[in-house]
Amino acid sequence: MDGNKPEKIVIGFWIRLLTDIVDAIILGIFGALISIPLKPLFNQMGENGLWVGLCVSFLYVGILQSKIGKGQSIAKRLFKIEVIRLDGGYLSLVKSFMRYIIIALIFYNSWIWLALTSILPILNNDAIRMVFFLMVACLFIGTVFLVAFHPQKRGLHDYIAGSIVVPKGAYDNAKILALNSKEKERNAILIWIGLSIAIIIASFFLRKVNSMDTIQELVALQKGIDQKTNFTNISINLNTKNNSTGTTKTLNIQAFLAKKTFDIDSVKKSERLKLVEVVKSSYPHLNECDAINVLIRTGFNIGIYSFYYRENTVYDKEGQEIKKGK
Q1: Within a 10 A sphere around the Cβ of 54, how many other Cβ atoms?
Q2: Main-chain dihedrals φ then ψ at residue 325, nearest 5 degrees
């Protein structure tokens, strides 16, 4: 080893992030390849195909970073680093899966939420959604900032699994223990807790600024569309723009439609019109909007790979079509 180059005892945030990106690319290539013969099946699954990708990534990361794969996914093997226990042994399969649950929740949070609410519509209310995304935000901070500030570069997922990331074959128990300053560890945890509290307070403040009434009205509209049409995974927001001619307000609605329905133009048009009728009959502030922008997507998402068709239609506040595009 170069005497002028400091010895790496543990692996920090940026190299770990890079290996995660490389692993995601590898999984994406695998997803694209299996989607060629399985495209009809994935189209039937639609966005619920997320669970396929989650299972694949769980097996890939969970197995390879356990004692079975000697602590190395393909990317970690390329970068010559490994995930091990604090005592130098490899993680059990259960511990490796526990470690990856935190990472999966962070990377796939939006799609996991969509899949969960598709299976269990009762979850689709504003309070539960807020709790879910605040939990994910706190997990993200605990993973990123703990790795950045922890003396042994251990994130929340490492605490849960009892793991540490080191250069391959360079584990040194004495040196790793010497890194563990209780004061620095405490400070790192306090940073995580402080930032998490700040995120929670900021989210409540933003909700207050954006008006609880407005949020509840949009959630009610979302539920109405879900109940009265065949659209799923619906998201709605109000977009206000200031320009030289004044202020314009657009009601943006994005939703998923199964491909077998999307491919029949008459049925697709009927579903769009039903959606617009729900907006006209149940959204109390439609007269304040300049346009209703409806973006329909179809195809599939298996988490590690997705393929979509999109069609955009704009209506005026009377429900008359203005333009359509793809």
Answers
A1: 20
A2: -150, 170
pLDDT at 159 (0 to 100):
93
Q: Is the pTM of this model over 0.90?
A: no
- What's the whole-number mean pLDDT along residues 35-40? 96
Segments making up each domain of the chain, as ranges: 13-208, 212-325
Pick the CATH number of 212-325 from 1.10.540, 3.30.300, 2.60.40, 3.40.50: 3.30.300
Instruction: Answer for the pair 295, 253: CB distance below 8 angstroms, yes or no.
Output: yes
For 41, half-sphere exposure in the C-beta direction (CA atoms, 13 angstrom radius) is: 9
152 three-state secondary structure: coil
Check residue 243 and give its pLDDT.
72
**DSSP letter (8 states) at residue 4:** T
The three-point CA angle 192-197-199 to 5° equals 95
DSSP secondary structure string, 157-181?
Answer: HHHHHTEEEEETT---HHHHHHH--
Using the predicted structure, report yes or no on whether residue 232 has a pLDDT greater than 80. Answer: yes
Work out the widest C-alpha separation in the chain, in whole angstroms: 75
